[in-house]
Design brief:
By secondary structure, the chain is α+β, with helices and mostly antiparallel strands. It contains five helices and eleven strands, in the order H-H-H-H-E-E-E-E-E-E-E-E-E-H-E-E. The radius of gyration is 24 Å and the shape is elongated.
Length: 254
């Protein structure tokens, strides 16, 4: 449940913040960085039209953020969730500044672009930091093992044909579709031997290696070695198959 509550709180905070921005701009448009209402009637009318355009863009982006954010949370598609926080509002601001009246000084326009870009970068960095700091979240629902977070998925327990507790990962050649920062590796990778593997790892030692009946290979780990060992025992218990142990490595044969 916590894996849904925290992202939902962040989503509602971002949406609420955008609503506050809309209210503040409506009450005083000159709070916009690099913007000043013109003194001449023609310039003032042009400025008012642009402010209205900006507000419409932000309002629509806010709805897109809310809808796709909820879809990402419910479907446990964290990549969609993260993009929903970043892309809509960033595009709205850039589109609005791209349609800013030419009567506004160029220096102010450049400053506005910089602020919009800087804001997008900050949001992106915070999202990446959040993904990096999250520990592994695994729950068991019925006959499935649910891995939450970025690139999360459900793995039917009965599909696992081999289970191993490994001291290290194979050497990684490239990241084909994944995220890697420090000891956190999430998604699809290819080893130096040319094998495709899926990683949900948050440490540099002790990994649960699971192989499905279709040949898909997973490596899973918590930051804490003991938690990883406990996960191995939980999966092993649900498999209900014979276990052979040799030199600290246990295999469950299908």
């Amino acid at each position: 449940m916590i894996d849904k509550i925290v992202p939902l709180i962040i989503l509602l905070f971002v949406v609420g913040l955008n609503c506050v921005v809309i209210i503040l701009i409506r009450s005083n448009p000159e709070i916009i960085s690099g913007f000043k209402m013109g003194d001449e009637p023609e310039q003032r009318d042009s400025n008012i039209m642009w402010v209205g355009l900006l507000l419409r863009y932000i309002h629509r982006a806010n709805w897109i953020t809310l809808i796709w954010g909820i879809i990402g949370i419910v479907g446990k598609w964290q990549l969609i969730y993260l993009l929903s926080l970043i892309v809509p509002i960033s595009c709205a601001i850039l589109l609005a500044y791209g349609n800013k009246p030419t009567l506004v000084r160029k220096g102010n326009r450049k400053r506005g672009y910089f602020v919009a870009l800087f804001t997008g970068i900050i949001i992106l960095c915070l999202s990446v930091f959040y993904s990096w700091r999250r520990n592994l979240e695994v729950t068991f629902s019925g006959d499935k093992m649910e891995i939450s977070g970025l690139y999360g998925m459900n793995i039917p327990i009965e599909d696992i044909t081999q289970l191993t507790l490994c001291p290290s990962l194979p050497k990684i050649a490239i990241r084909t579709n994944g995220f890697a920062f420090g000891n956190t590796r999430l998604g699809h990778f290819r080893t130096e031997e040319g094998k495709n593997i899926i990683l949900f790892t948050h440490s540099d030692s002790i990994f649960v290696r699971a192989i499905k009946d279709d040949g898909t290979v997973f490596y899973i780990s918590y930051r804490e070695s003991e938690a990883t060992k406990q996960l191995f025992l939980k999966i092993q218990d649900r498999l209900g198959k014979s276990v052979e142990t040799e030199e600290g490595v246990a295999d469950v044969g299908g």
